Give the backbone structure.
Amino acid sequence: MNDREARLGKFETQFFAWTQLRKKSLVATGDIATALGLAPKQERELLSRMARAGLIVRIRNGLYMVPSQIPPGGKWTPGEYKLARALMEDTGASYQIAGPTAFHQYGFDEQVPNNVTIYNDKISGRRAIGGIEFILVKVARERLGGADDLKLPDGTQVKISGLARTLMDAVYDWDRFNTLPRAYNWIRAQKNNTNVITELVQLTIKHGNSGTMRRMGCLLEALGTAPRLLNKLKAELTETRSLIPFAPTLPYRGNINRDWGVIVNEEI
């Protein structure tokens, strides 16, 4: 028995023995009362006590994440990916991790994000779980897609936006993520990757909007993208005389690309 185990009380020890035997990663109020011979109030107090001690992590009222082994030393930190998966499984949501976490995952941004954005089709708002802030963005189910399965060291998987989808979101959701004009450099770096550019066009048509398609078309045309891909974007656009800025955060001064209806106010 290690020092950590020695400091556990009787019920904490029995709790971990029970969860490990059944390979439980999530425990809800009511799960252990009978098994440990506890009254409902005692069970609630035990779970709260263990959460305050950092032995388990509270996902929401009445639901806790449990480590596969007793945490050695300090508090147990399952990490943002496992917490995101648990939160989404509990709500029954389709989801994908996006935004700053995806930007960092693909090396676009070196800064480690201080929150995790999750596109999902069930809930919106902010949740603080295990010391990590989650920004939940509710979207229509058809706006989810272009995600990959990220395999964690313990074998579990989480949904995270793929490379092309992450690039598209950086243009589509620029106001939320403050990514324009930075995102254009990320796309420029992929200009010779035919597979990524082709998927980027497909995802822009499927999940983007008019502004995203116009900005993306303007950029990809300047990068020498194949006309067949550019024509797919143009086919989705309706004729308009209105103009939008290429870089919304910069002064609206520059040449006008009439084909895409874009004020080119940032060097392409």
The first helix runs from residue 3 to 7. The chain has three domains: 3-65, 77-161, 163-268. The chain has twelve helices and twelve strands. The mean pLDDT is 94.
